């Protein structure tokens, strides 16, 4: 029995659009890289070198992507240890583990599953946690291009992610 392969790990939908140009552009690039890895792992002739190159590109992008969000979270008053940041750390750990697994020449099951599973995580993460970050940025009038505030944050640092689904 053969199973159909999805045409993409994640599809760009209006729900992923957060209406913050820097985040939306970064998210689109993430989706493109994830879908590129998905296409590669489903190509029968993918080599270990090609997989490592694709994983390296995804890891490099994701480090910069999460780093950008981490700087903005710090600027708008998120506590250093918050659930949004913890999710970022976990995802980077998984990406690095999968890369090490491929480099060691082990089975390809983890890298084959990665694009779809990471795509599913990303949809939730963007719609809940990243949307909460954008909302907080909007509430404080934070301009990510300049780092300036129209209304600087007041009060205690936010230890959650800003989402109602986070405690």
TrEMBL record:
Pfam families associated with the record: Hemerythrin (PF01814)
Region (Disordered): 145-167
Compositionally skewed regions (Polar residues) per UniProt: 156-167
Domain Hemerythrin-like: from-to ranges: 22-131
Key words, A-Z: Iron, Metal-binding
UniProt family annotation: Belongs to the hemerythrin family.
Official protein name in the record: Hemerythrin domain-containing protein
Species assigned in the record: Roseateles paludis
